[in-house]
Structures are given as C-alpha cells and as structure tokens.
Amino acid sequence: MANEEHLARLMKGVESWNAWVRVNYKVRPDLRDADLSKANLFGADLNEANLKGATLIDTNLSKADLGKADLSGADLSGADLILTSLSYANFNKATLNKATLIEANLIRSNFSGATLIKVNLDGASLIEARLIDTNLSGANLTKAKLIDANLSGANLSGANLTATNFSGAYLKGTNLSGADLTDANLSGAYLKGANLSNALLIASQLSRSNLTHAILTGACIQDWNINSETQLNDVTCEYVYLKAEWSPQQERSLLTNRRPSDPNRIFAPGEFAKLFQKALETVDLIFVDGIDWKAFFQSFQELRSQYDDDNLSIQAIEKKSGGTFVIRLEVSPEADKGTIERHAKELYERDRQLLEAEYRAELHAKDREIESYKRESTNMMEIAKLLASKPITVEAKAVAESQSNSDTFNTDLRGANVANFANKVQDNARQQANQNIYTSSEKQSLAEAAAEIQKLLKQLEQTNPTATEAEQKAFVTAAIPATIRQRAVGALQAGGETAIAEFLDNPYVNVAVAIVKGWREAGE
C-alpha cells in the first residue's frame, strides 16, 4: 500500500510536491498500488518512486521525471508520457496500451513481459532497453531508437516501425509479421528465428532499409516486401523459411518451406543476398486493391512506346496476400525509375477511369452490374499467377502458320530453303511450290520465337481457357521485349507466313501469325 503522507502531499499539486522532494531528496516516494487515474502530474519529480501496481490510467505524466522508478505491474493505459524521462525505469509486466510516449527517454528501461498494444513511441529513445516477450502489436515506433535493445521474443506484429533504428538490436524470435519497417535500420541486428512474414522493408529514395551485417538464420520471410534499395550486404543467413502456419494444437506458428530445401545444406556466404536481393534495373508497381488487367495492358503499351529507349518489359508479376499485386518492370540502369513509376500509375489510372466510363455506358450506370463486369475483367488474375511463377526473360522469337483447304501434310524441311506443300483436294491433287529465302539467323529467330509464343499460348490456355484473341495478343506482347519483337517481325517478312508453319502446332498457327502481323502493323 502507498505511504499515506506521500500520497496526500502529491494530491496537493505538482508544485507543492516538487518543493517537498527538493527538501527531502533522500526519501524514496512510496506510491505502491495508488490510484492516480486521470491525475495531472505534468512535470512531477517522481525519480526513483515506487509505483509498483499503481493505477495511472489516462494520467498526465508529460515531462515528468520517472527515472529509475518502479512501475512493475502498473496500469498506464492511455497515459500521457510525452517527453517524460523514464531511463532505467522498471515496467516489468506493466500495461501501457494506447499510452503516448512520444520522444520519451526510455534508455535502459525494462519492459519485459509488458503489454504496449497500440502504444505511441514515435521518436522515443529505447537504447539498450529490455523488451523481452513484450507485446507491441500495432505500436507506433516511427523514428524510435532501439540501438542495442533486447527484444527477444517480443511481439511487434503490425507495428509501425518506419525509420526505426534497430542497429545492433537483439531480435531473436521477435514477431515482426506485418510490421512496417520502411527505411528502418537493422544493420547488425540479430534476427535469428524472427518472423518477418508480410513485413514491409521497402526503402524510400531518401534513405534505405538497412540489413547490412544482420543475422537472419531461421527467420520467416513469407511475403516480405523489399525493393532494390533494401540493403542485404554481408547478411549472415544459413537458412530461412518461406511460410508460417498457425497451429491451434501447439499454439504457435509452424515454419515450413525451408530454403535451401535440403535440410543438410546451408546458404554459402553471399548466396542469400543474391537469391533475394531485387535487381537494380527494376521498377515495382504495387496495386493494393487489385488490378484491372485490361487497363494495365493498355496503359503499359503506351508507357513502353513513350520510354522506348529504356527497354521496358515485364520481368515478373507477383500476387501478394489480400489481393495486392506487384508488377516488376525491367528497365535500363540509366532510366529515371521514379518518373517511370509515377507515369505508369498515372496512365493506368487514366485508362482505368476511361474503361469504367465505358462499363457504365454499356451497363446503364448500374453499380451492381459494373462490379460484375469488372469481376469478369479480373479473370485475368490467372495471368498474374502464371507470370509470378517465374521471371519472364525472352530471347528472339517469332511465329508462323500454314493452312490448307482440306487435309494438311506436314513436311520437315528445316534443312532446306524451299518448302513444297502438297495439298490434297477431293477430286484431284495439285502441288505448288512456295520458295522462302531467308538467312540461317533469321530462321533461328523465327523458330525460337515460334516456340516461345506457342509455349506462352499453351500456358495461357491452361490458366484462362476463355481468353479472347485480344487478351492473348496482350499477354504475349507484354511478355516479349521490343527488341525481340522487331527481330521476329523481320524474320517473318523475310520468310513469309507459310514458312513458319513448320515450327507451330496447328491449333496455335492463326493466333501466332496474327500476333506477329500485329507487331508489324504497329511498326514494332
């Protein structure tokens, strides 16, 4: 129980209290289990005070001195601790839900086992603080300093950790799932067994999310988000997990999909960074609320024509959780990535709005029917799943087709320059010769292009069998860079449409030739 004299003096007001403390500086204030809810203790001198088990709900402690105070088991929910001095304070198993500790001094304070759900620690100093098994889910630690802090087993899921300094922090087994670590400094951090599922480690153009010298062995990186500015230099990592599944029976997450897959193998030095570091020659377009594929392909064609010198092409499409898509564009190293990203989003939004206007006109502005129409459009999600399975880098490609009036006889003449096609007619047979003269390099380009386009069409047929010819053309065109399309068009012009029939299966001839002819008409 609290010392009644001490409690009575404090209730007289902060000015009177501070004057008494200055005279009785050797006395340690005893306020154990005191109910100080909603009290105004702004600027109070509570240095080394015993506040164990005290109730401080919604209490104003802004700019107070609580250095070395014992607040273990205390309830500070909603308390105002802005600019408060709390260095060396003991918050063991205390509750600080929704408390405000903006720019508070928490150096070497102890929060072990404490609950700080949705607490605001913006700009707070937690250097060498102990947050072992602390619950900080949904907390705001923007620009907080956690240098050399111990957060072993802490729960930081969903926390805002933007620009937080974790350099040298001990984060073994820490739950950082869904946390926003944009521009965070994790250099030298010990992250063994940490959960980084869905964590956002994107770096802005102003600074970089830094994992240099961090230890990531055994961490879970399911759906984590990094970009080319995220530094993975000299990361120490023997293995990671790509998936975490909650087990109700064991009441914990089970980590699966180990990389390397062989349990007897570990990453060689530098292998982790090479495997997971994003290429510098990329621009990531992030669509959080889904994507209208028709609008995207339409806007992408215009974007590519405007940035022809930057060799824009789609490297990969990744589907994230919650309907988010990341379309990774490959660009030249000299390209202005920020301008390209901004322009791509502007063109997409413009085309999306134009298409939506068309939807409304066609469906008589009925909102319910608009949503139905748009859902049909987004059936091309399967295209994203297909492209997300592997980065698309395509060598020289082209297509061809041959048709006959009735039965077709295929002749393998890949060693000759003259192709004789025998067409059998009902009453009689006639033979015609069609001479195709083109170089061996053009023929190779034609064969390779035909094979690649046919492969893409087959894959699209498996994932989206109802795709229209326009969608097929858009899909293949988006996957093949401009330089490759130009070589395919040149080879087709040299050899003629019938020359490429030998490289294609009959069901894909018409659409393949139409695609390459479309490139030619578009001036590719």
What are the main properties of this structure?
single chain; alpha+beta; Pectate Lyase C-like; 524 residues
Explain this structure to me?
- The protein is elongated and about 105 Å long.
- Among the domains are: 158 residues, Pectate Lyase C-like; 102 residues, no CATH class; 104 residues, no CATH class.
- With 524 residues, the chain is α+β, with helices and mostly antiparallel strands.
- α8 packs across α10, α9 crosses α11 and α10 packs across α11.
- The chain is built from 11 helices and 7 strands.
Strands of the widest sheet, in order across it, are 3-5-4
Binned, the helix content reads: 25-40%
**Category by helix and strand content:** alpha+beta
User: What quaternary form is this?
Assistant: single chain
CATH architecture of the domain at 121-278: 3 Solenoid
CATH topology (fold) name of the domain at 121-278: Pectate Lyase C-like
Write down the Rg. 32 Å
In total, the number of strands is 7
Distance between the termini: 84 Å
Roughly what fraction of the amino acids lie in strands? Answer: 5-15%
Helix-strand pattern, N to C? HHEEHEHEEHHHEEHHHH
What's the shape?
elongated
Show unreliable segments: 390-437
Q: Helix count? A: 11
> What number is the mean pLDDT?
77
Largest sheet: 3 strands, antiparallel
CATH class of the domain at 121-278: Mainly Beta
